[in-house]
Each structure stands twice: as structure tokens, then as C-alpha cells.
Design a protein that fits this description.
single chain, 216 residues, alpha/beta, eight-stranded parallel beta barrel, two-stranded antiparallel ribbon, 8 helices, globular
Length: 216
Amino acid sequence: MRIRVKVCCISSVDEANTVIATGVDAIGLVGNMPSGPGVISDELIKNIAYSVPEGVDTFLLTCETSAKKIVEHHSRTLTNTIQLVDELKEGTYFDIRSSLPSVKLVQVIHVLDDKSVDDAVRISESVDALLLDSGNPSLEVKELGGTGRTHNWYLSRKIVERSSVPVYLAGGLNVNNIQRAVEVVQPYGVDLCSGVRTNGKLDKKKLQQFLSKVWQ
């Protein structure tokens, strides 16, 4: 099965069009965050999501931690997928699904230790997919993704083996390490941001090189 590719931190309709033309499966649109790259306004997220052709997943990255506020955030953007980059602390995944039955839910797991594995397996029962990243929500200024760092891929492999839903791998992926990452983790999909950018700008050459490694 072909590995799915999601390119995150999309910042304009033109950038979305450029990425989608390469054949990627999904784009990430970053809402307000305590740290990390790629943040754009909800209005721009909505405009980009509206421009995307059918068949491409549009991920709203939200740092909201209550079901009610997550639903409210989505109402301002209207993506077809919500990526929860932090822990759900108020309400339940069922509450979100009840309000947004046609929207897919992807929970980010920041892979730090064996507890991350247990958390991921438990949460996989309630969402459509997991996304494994290298942040650290326990810091004073939360790291919720976009760090450009890799993490322990062998822990990620444990999650893939035990998860009841598809698993995306993120965190510091680039043309030099993607083949090894896929070999070790065996993910359903991969997600990248800094690995296909130069000075913060989308680098089409880097993206094409990355895709050639993933889809060879």
C-alpha cells in the first residue's frame, strides 16, 4: 500500500496548489499555537480548505483542549479533518463526533516514553487516526509540534503495532532519514513541515526529492 503523505504548515492557496499538484494526500493548516511554525488565521485556513479539491484531506491543527472549543474552532475553518495537537481535557471525542459526524479526528501523540505508547493505544479506540510527533506538552511553553526533531522511532513502531487505527509519523522527517523512518516505524502515512522548506518557504525541489524517496 502506498504511504500517504501530509505536508503541514501550508500558508496560502498558492502553496496548497503547489503541494497538491505533486500528488500528496493531505495538507496541514495551523491554527493559533503557543509555539511552533506555520500559524495562520482561521479565515485563511477556511479559504485554503475551500480551495482544495475533493479527495485531499485538509487538517485543522487546533490546540484547544475542550470538545466545545474544538467544535467552535472548526466552525471557523470548515476543514474535513481535525488534528488535536494537545490532550482532550474537557468533554469527549464522542461529543466532537456528535457535533461533527462527517469530520475525521486525528489525535497527536507526543512520543516521549512508554506511557506515550499506552496512551496512544487507549486513545486509538476513539479517533480515526493517530499522528506521532516530537513535541512536549509538559513544558512551560508547550511544544505541540513543528519542532523539526525526531523521536524514538522504536516507541512509534510499538504504537503502530498496537493501534486500532492508522498511524501517521511526524517529527524531523526529511529526505535523508525518511527511508529509515518508514523501515523502522511502518506507518500508514508521514507528515512533514520543516523538511521541505528552505528559510521557512516551501521548497518544491525538496518536496519532490522527499516524495521520490517515499514512493520509489
